[in-house]
Queue: 2 jobs
Job 1
Amino acid sequence: MITLFQFKPALGLPNASPFCMKMETYLRMANMDYSTTCINNPAKGPKGKLPYIEDKGEVIADTSFIIEYLENTCNHDLDSSLDSTEKAVSDAFVRMLEEFFYWTILYSRWIDNRYWPDARNIFFGDFPPLVKNIVSNILRKQAKRRLYEQGIGRHTSGQIYQIAESNLVTLSDYLDDKPYFMGDEPTKLDATAVLRAITWLNLTTHRKEKSISSSCLRCNSGVNSTSEVSHFSG
Ligand SMILES: N[C@@H](CCC(=O)N[C@@H](CS)C(=O)NCC(=O)O)C(=O)O
């Protein structure tokens, strides 16, 4: 049986990590037999990030490579109904969400002073107070450096939320009134995109971040219309 290694549930979600949510949703959508093991420290993973899986003694990290592995070994492809142009569009959306939108979530959780105290309590609540302060401050500095190196950390807070909003609008516009992002059937993009919108919606509702509320509402209708996928997220 596949074991999925991921963070424990947080923020009222099965997982605060959009990548862990994507992976577990994919496993559910593909009807695979799996169990989960919660770990706190991503450094324990083979690539220093979560999630990763173990299957028949093999350890695989990174959601893209995990999905590729599962497609090859289990002969199951959620995108089998897509032609090559549709696959290209889907891939571009996945990249937008994972390589671009992701950083705006990271900024809001780890850097924005308005939300950091809450995020710190949620993510480090189980640590003794001294360890909580030391570890969280080290990781916050690391997040700041990564955001700066990626480039998004050089923008103002307003510009970063503007990017988040424009990504959500793009997603919402493409979903339009279709049942799923790529048409009538759920595909890999639904596992990636809907869950990301839910992660964001959950945080913004929690934080009452007004500047992106209109996009969230639009995405919310998308999330509702793809409720079958939301259901897979547990
Ligand atoms: N490309 C990876 C990204 C995974 C990722 O960024 N995971 C984050 C949690 S959302 C993580 O473990 N970060 C810990 C770190 O960077 O130190 C995937 O698709 O699995």
Job 2
Amino acid sequence: MAAPYAEHFLDLKRQIAETYPDFEARATQAWGDIINELDKMVATVSTQGSDYIPQVKFSELSSLSLEKVEEIRRIGTVVIKDVVDDAEARSWQDSLKEFVKVNPDIRGFPAGDMQFFELYWTKPQVQARSHPNLLAASAWLNKLYRDNGNGSLDGVDLSTPLTYADRFRIRHPGVQWDAHPPHIDGGAIERWEDTAFRTCFDDILTGQWRKHDPYALSGRLNARSSLYRRPNQATVFRTFQGWLAMSETEPHQGTLKVFPNVVLSNAYIILRPFFRPLVPIDSKDILDVKNWAYDISYADFPGILPRDGGFTGPRPTPETHPHLMLEKTMTSVPKVMPGDAVFWHCDVVHSVELEHTGKEDSAVMYIPAMPTTPMNKAYVEKQKESFLQGVSPPDFPKSPQKFAGNGEPVDFLSPIGLHAMGLPISV
Ligand SMILES: [Fe+2]
């Protein structure tokens, strides 16, 4: 039996094919070209490993060379060292461990040995998000985006970051973690379905994928990334997702892995639903472009999966997206120390390592970069109420949040941090 959304997916494909002039010919030309480029990229990335991911010091952000900034844009992921003092970051980890010990009603997973916590308003989180250096890093990342002259930027201020409250994890060594296979957050079928969001990928859909700028602002501002209001689906525009390390963590110790070329992964993933393989997926010739054909008659957006009344993904796998060669290209971020932060562009394919072979807990707080935009500001207003009332933020499932040791406005570490939460700066 066809999936209940099959007709909807087929319509969407047809609609896109009719919207973009000469779609079949241009998409087919681009598809071959992208596959070629992916092949070249794989060779470079797989030989360099974690060294391929740029690392910069927080203190150097304002004086980086243009080449370095372009490298960060191209790869889409950056490690920013020494955003926060080591001792302060470690103390946050200690406090969080204490917090979860004294508050038994906390939700998280895995059950029985909780390591990922459904908590948003603990004092260490409130402090970290309002740390002036973290907010300065956020503003710097926001400013990697640019006006592409394609619409109004009214109400947009890349220099003034806003806060998006998310959770934290304290991952134990030795425990396998399969909860986060390669995926992209911030919109699933919406990437194709929402007409505002889709404009972010116009250059890909017109076949001019090399012109695609993942840092073009206009399409992001009104993109609706949560058409189905699925819980856990962010409704805001985060320029970069990110985490702040509270522990020393190196590759194979449960760290983040990324696909390190955001133009190529976007181009391939956006065009993938319009092509199908002509040979079995396990054929040794599956990568040969001659074995793929343009076809919009099948009702599938590979990697987009139904969930909770909406959709999740994209979740590329070696089977659905073989040319990404995820086994070779998913690259662990280099070793981080407490107080270092990792940020990845909102379109970057990322995962969490299955294994943690280290000896220490691998602990991070999720803190993305979010600029001031009308949509984000509206969210922050609602999020502020959640904070003041001690409930989960609007994008997340409801879970208990009123605990001893929560942060309060007086705990914020900077006026800019209060502003980022929509709070008055004189508390
Ligand atoms: Fe994610």
